[in-house]
Design a protein that fits this description.
With 202 residues, the chain is α+β, with helices and mostly antiparallel strands. The protein has one domain (6-49, 63-200). 56% of the residues lie in helices and 18% in strands. The protein contains five helices and six strands; from the N terminus they run E-E-H-H-E-E-H-H-H-E-E. Helix 1 (25-48) packs antiparallel against helix 4 (150-166), helix 3 (120-145) runs antiparallel to helix 4 (150-166) and helix 3 crosses helix 5.
Length: 202
C-alpha cells in the first residue's frame, strides 16, 4: 500500500543527510542556551509593551497577589506545554493516522511518530503548527489584555516568552528544511527527541 505523506521504510535510493538528538548533552545545552536568549528578548519586548514600564511595579506590597500571579502563570505554562505537543501530534495524526509518541527529556518535551518516515511537507507542517497557532493566540490575547489589565497582559506575555523560546528546536529544523533540504521527496523520521533526515541520492 502506498502512502503519499510517508513511507514505512527508507527507500533504497535514499541516504542519511542529517541527524539531531535533543537528549544529547551538547545539543541540549546549545538548544537551552538558544532558548534562553530568545526568552530574554521576548520578555524585554513584553515588558516594553507595558504603559510607562519605567514606573511599573507588579503588585507592590501585595504578597498574596504576587504569589497568585506566579501560580497562575505556572499552571498555564504546564497546560500550554501539553497543548504544544498535542498540536504537533494533531498534524501528524491527521496526515498519517499513525501511532504517536509523547514524552519528556531533561531538555525538552516532545511528540514524535517513530514508526514511519514522513515527507518534507508533513514534517514542516508539524514543526510549524504550534509556532503558528500559539503565536497568533498569545499576540492577539496580549494586545487585547494590554488595554485593560496589565497583570493578565504579563501572564500572557510570559507565556508567549516560554512559547517562542520553546520553539527553538522546531524553528531550527524548519530552517534546515527551507534552506538545505528543499527536495519535496526528503523524508524525516521523528521519534520525538531525535530526528533523522533522508534525501534521495542524485
Amino acid at each position: 500500500m502506498e502512502h503519499k505523506d510517508f513511507e514505512l521504510q527508507v527507500p533504497e535510493e535514499y541516504t542519511l543527510a542529517y541527524h539531531i538528538d535533543a537528549a544529547n548533552k551538547k545539543t541540549g545545552i546549545l538548544m537551552t542556551l538558544g532558548a534562553f536568549v530568545i526568552m530574554v528578548a521576548a520578555i524585554a519586548l513584553v515588558y516594553a509593551g507595558i504603559p510607562k514600564p519605567w514606573s511599573f511595579t507588579l503588585f507592590a506590597g501585595d504578597t498574596g497577589r504576587f504569589f497568585l500571579f506566579w501560580v497562575v502563570w505556572l499552571v498555564l505554562t504546564v497546560v500550554y506545554l501539553v497543548l504544544h505537543e498535542l498540536t504537533h501530534g494533531a498534524v501528524y495524526k491527521a496526515m498519517t493516522h499513525q501511532k504517536l509518541r509523547f514524552g519528556i527529556t531533561w531538555s525538552a518535551a516532545f511528540c514524535g511518530v517513530p514508526d514511519i518516515y514522513t515527507y518534507r511537507r508533513v514534517a514542516i507542517l508539524s514543526l510549524i503548527a504550534p509556532l503558528t497557532v500559539f503565536t497568533i493566540i498569545f499576540v492577539a490575547l496580549g494586545l487585547w489584555l494590554r488595554t485593560f489589565s496589565t497583570a493578565w497582559y504579563l501572564v500572557v506575555g510570559m507565556l508567549f516568552a516560554v512559547h517562542i523560546s520553546g520553539c527553538v528546536g522546531d524553528m531550527f529544523m524548519t530552517f534546515k528544511f527551507l534552506t538545505k533540504y528543499k527536495d519535496p521527496r526528503t523524508l524525516m523520521r521523528d521519534t520525538g527527541p531525535e530526528q533523522w533526515v533522508y534525501v534521495p541520492e542524485e
